[in-house]
Amino acid sequence: MAPRDRNLSTVKQTSSSPPSPPSSDPPAFRAGVGERERGGIHPATARLPRPPLSGEPHSDPNETSTSGDVDRLPNEMSNMNIRDDKDIEDIVVNGNGTEPGHIIVTSIDGRNGQAKQTISYMAERVVGHGSFGTVFQAKCLETGETVAIKKVLQDKRYKNRELQTMRVLDHPNVVSLKHCFFSKTEKEELYLNLVLEYVPETAHRVIKHYNKMNQRMPLIYAKLYMYQICRALAYIHNFIGVCHRDIKPQNLLVNPHTHQLKLCDFGSAKVLVKGEPNISYICSRYYRAPELIFGATEYTTAIDVWSAGCVLAELLLGQPLFPGDSGVDQLVEIIKVLGTPTREEIKCMNPNYTEFKFPQIKAHPWHKIFHKRMPAEAVDLVSRLLQYSPYLRSTASEALIHPFFDELRDPNTRLPNGRFLPPLFNFKPHELKGMPMEFLVKLIPEHARKQCAFIGWSV
């Protein structure tokens, strides 16, 4: 059976369209934003057949589950309170100063009491659009610097949460906000413009590149990208207290020369306060944690960890692990791999969820999901991140010391082209605050400890 394509489309989908195959066009650079896929079908018609992943055998007659059990899943789940993607429509903002050649003039406050400084940006091309607004590549005429400008319609009654979040972020693996300004259209519509550092590629496009070449991504890149994802998440979760809520390859910017990765698009990010409800319809479908599918409103930053686990699996497989066609089908795809969740696991995901109408599907062994040569450490890390219970998932900090990343701690490790790795151990004191010494010893290799002299190494 020819495997169905699992790559997310780089353009919006209608509610009846399956994910588009990888484009043969040259990569269109993206920066500071992620595509938001939409679309879905009715639970009763959810598409179930899934071809084996790399190294995955066809149905085993000794398995507990049967094809009939799997076929019954959509019918059993059709009455579940799972919101479908087709309930949401995209709003696309066109024009408004993003046309190539259009010049935007603004001013920023001078430093150390100096006068305001005028800055001019010339729009070069649109690199992303969706329900959030538009992102375009621009050049600063005064300095020649290339930037990404994210332009979003601003409700005058409210503060912009993304702006509030971006203003406090300062980390090598998080895209930086240079400054911001507001602009108005002829219709008196107010727009917020976030001027962001420009990073030319995404993990999504890197994956597509290797698929197009019919090659596997070098494992060192998967390690590099995943380590930097975990470091970014550890920072925003522990120090800032923010949950990103939309981790996916499209929101992971990659410098193709250094392979430094930066997390972007904080449009869905929020500080999660215990006891305060949050919307459960959040996060792009393929990377949506099961507690969100079960309608949990008091979730934790563990939803980002689940998404990161899905990204790691995709880096290793070259395709999404859970390519659901709708909200319901997403749970079907997860159950095919993890098996049917127990009552206790469902209670951990959403204590208020009382329905339990699933046929018993046996978990598929993780080592059969990946090809035979996949290192055991890689498979183990995926399994630790993709746990039904949010409380059993590794945290982003815990993932950083996993043996899967030990090669990155070797001073002799180089990129495939012979270049040095990007900075991985340039931690600041607030990143490591409260971490025990035995953890730090595992995290930071001896050759890099001079960068963290503030720790006061005694071992």
Automatic annotation (TrEMBL):
Q: Which Gene Ontology MF annotations are present?
A: ATP binding; protein serine/threonine kinase activity
Q: Which reaction does it catalyse?
A: L-threonyl-[protein] + ATP = O-phospho-L-threonyl-[protein] + ADP + H(+); L-seryl-[protein] + ATP = O-phospho-L-seryl-[protein] + ADP + H(+)
- Residue ranges, annotated region (Disordered): 1-80
PANTHER family recorded for this chain?
Answer: GLYCOGEN SYNTHASE KINASE-3 ALPHA (PTHR24057), NON-SPECIFIC SERINE_THREONINE PROTEIN KINASE (PTHR24057:SF78)
What is the name of this protein? non-specific serine/threonine protein kinase
Entry coiled-coil feature ranges: none
Identify its protein family: Belongs to the protein kinase superfamily. CMGC Ser/Thr protein kinase family. GSK-3 subfamily.
Q: What is its EC number?
A: 2.7.11.1
GO terms in the biological process aspect are:
cell differentiation; negative regulation of brassinosteroid mediated signaling pathway; signal transduction
Protein kinase domain span: 121-405
Show the CDD domains listed in the entry. STKc_GSK3 (cd14137)
Alphabetically ordered keywords of this record: ATP-binding, Kinase, Nucleotide-binding, Serine/threonine-protein kinase, Transferase
Q: Spell out the GO cellular component terms annotated for this protein, sorted alphabetically and separated by semicolons.
A: cytoplasm; nucleus
Stored InterPro entries: GSK-3 (IPR050591), Kinase-like_dom_sf (IPR011009), Prot_kinase_dom (IPR000719), Protein_kinase_ATP_BS (IPR017441), Ser/Thr_kinase_AS (IPR008271), STKc_GSK3 (IPR039192)
The residues that hold ATP are 151
